[in-house]
Amino acid sequence: MKPGTKIFVLGVTVECSATELGDPEATEEELRACAEEMAAQLGFGTPVVTVDGEFVSLRAIETGPVEYVLPADNILGETDPALLSGQFVALGFATLLHPLPPGEHEIMIDFDGDGDIDNTTTIIVDPNA
């Protein structure tokens, strides 16, 4: 990546859509409650993120309702035309990293804060990029 590039890091996110609720008229409150329930069921705590071994502070984030349209061959396997579009609400933890200096950097994410690293990403900042 080019020097000077900021990096948006998602520690963990969860969302709930009208499709997942099976209700094309689901309200923002219903979608938010569903997303919160999903996070609880999945056991999401506060994730831990490190960059080159240093802890990074995360912020809790949530969206308002976001419109979506699913393709006919979608990941949810939904075929009901009334449920192929609607709204979703997402919750999670994220941060925007300042640009990293040239070299190789490691971003590690422990999604639930249990000490087990769930994702490791290597970033190479190349001044010649």
What does this structure look like?
- The structure is a single chain.
- With 129 residues, the chain is mainly beta.
- It has helices at residues 18-21, 28-42; strands spanning 7-17, 48-51, 54-56, 59-62, 66-69, 85-97, 103-110, 119-125.
- Strands 1, 4, 5 and 6 form a 4-stranded antiparallel β-sheet that branches. Strands 3-2-7-8 form a 4-stranded antiparallel β-sheet, with no helix packed on it.
- It is elongated and about 50 Å long.
- The mean pLDDT is 92.
Stretches with pLDDT under 50, minimum 5 residues: none
Count the strands?
Answer: 8
Give the helix level as a range of percent. 10-25%
Q: Tell me, what's the shape? A: elongated
Specify Rg, calculated over alpha carbons: 18 Å
Order of H and E elements: EHHEEEEEEE
Counted by DSSP, the helix tally is 2
Mean pLDDT score: 92
**What percentage of amino acids are in beta strands?**
35-45%
Can you summarize the main beta sheet? 4 strands, antiparallel
Distance between the termini: 6 Å
